[in-house]
Amino acid sequence: MPAGADRWTGYALAWVTSLAGQQYAEGMAKLGLQASHAAILQMLHEAGPMNQNRLAERTRIDKAPLVGLLNTLEQLTLVERRPHPSDRRAFEVHLTPQGAAKLSDIEQMNAQVTETFFEPLSSAEQRVLHDLLTRLARHHTPPTNS
């Protein structure tokens, strides 16, 4: 980190986020995926099938890039788009059994990256950091129309 910039909490957070993001991206690349792919798979696992507009809103991924991400996930047979049961203009995105299984690989990779990246912190410090970041994220994330 540039000398003196460590006194600025926002800058330090951005710097550490960038470093963590690089390591996470490298881990995801080993699985043939991107971080956004993991977000989509996890959202579908947690919330069930949903249309693309709702998925874009819930994952905070713009609609245009979401289409490309879904195309890749569909080619990998991790998700599938089906006609929406009540809106013939829309498609619903479904997690496939292969997609659910891939989440297990993502969990293992995440555990490895987390262990390596956060090694300088004790377990208690890691929990506190996680809790603080989660609180900030929840406070600053606008509500969704779900």
Automatic annotation (TrEMBL):
<dbReference type="InterPro" id="IPR000835">
    <property type="entry name" value="HTH_MarR-typ"/>
</dbReference>
<dbReference type="InterPro" id="IPR036388">
    <property type="entry name" value="WH-like_DNA-bd_sf"/>
</dbReference>
<dbReference type="InterPro" id="IPR036390">
    <property type="entry name" value="WH_DNA-bd_sf"/>
</dbReference>
<feature type="domain" description="HTH marR-type">
    <location>
        <begin position="1"/>
        <end position="138"/>
    </location>
</feature>
<dbReference type="Pfam" id="PF01047">
    <property type="entry name" value="MarR"/>
</dbReference>
<protein>
    <recommendedName>
        <fullName>HTH marR-type domain-containing protein</fullName>
    </recommendedName>
</protein>
<dbReference type="InterPro" id="IPR039422">
    <property type="entry name" value="MarR/SlyA-like"/>
</dbReference>
<dbReference type="GO" id="GO:0006950">
    <property type="term" value="P:response to stress"/>
</dbReference>
<dbReference type="GO" id="GO:0003700">
    <property type="term" value="F:DNA-binding transcription factor activity"/>
</dbReference>
